[in-house]
Amino acid sequence: MDRRPIGVFDSGVGGLTVLKKLKELLPNEDYIYFGDTKRVPYGDKPKDEIEKYARQIVNFMNERNTKIIVIACNTTCASIDKNEYKEILFSVLEAGAESAADLTKNNRVGVIATTRTVESGSYEKSIKLKNSNADIFQKACPGFVPLVEKGLSESDESFKLAKEYLKTLNDEGIDTLVLGCTHYPILLNAIKNAVREDVLIVDPAIRLSYDVMNYLKENDMLNLSNGGKTQYFVSGDAKKFADVAKLILNEDIENVSHVDIDKY
Predict the structure, then answer these.
(1) Domains of the chain, with CATH numbers?
(2) pTM score, two decimals?
């Protein structure tokens, strides 16, 4: 048994969609969540900058004595080399790619993600490693993250933007669509409205949460005591984060602490 917390981090509130799945599957675990709300969005930032951010956040997680770290940010996953870290890291991008490769029937897979993730080609490479017959069609959706961070996921603007972004992928005849940014499940209604009814929408957080559970089981690291506590940390406005987090998690978020992440 290992009572240390699980670390989860993202550029902002999007990673809460991953945290929610983890808490459903592993309710006894304690969690440390960090949202880099001061520097969000990551999607238009250069690779070396995101690598620096990741190092700072991992250093912060080590200070909080986390047993594993879940990278709930596709842009970060697409920008760093996990092999350069000694920590046990779980990648939401790898989980999403594996899900899509397994689930597509016609081998035409759509990926919506940030500009940085799309330009990295990480999803295409990862999906083709698992399914070499797959054709990957990607679309950068830079306008999505700011809308989610402002709590506007159900707005007319979100529905209109989703229609614009997804038109080309619909035209390509995809049967599977990967939500390649953890902010995007929060826009699920707008995205569903914009794609054909027969398109299977993949939320990588589902596969990722099972990967984490299986790893903890296999390595005797599950917390079998009465845990279930989550601490929230942000680099930006704690009140604004708590307001949006409440909408995503359907629970009051009270213990949000501000962190000067640059000192790490």
Answers:
(1) 6-91+206-263 (3.40.50.1860), 93-204 (3.40.50.1860)
(2) 0.93
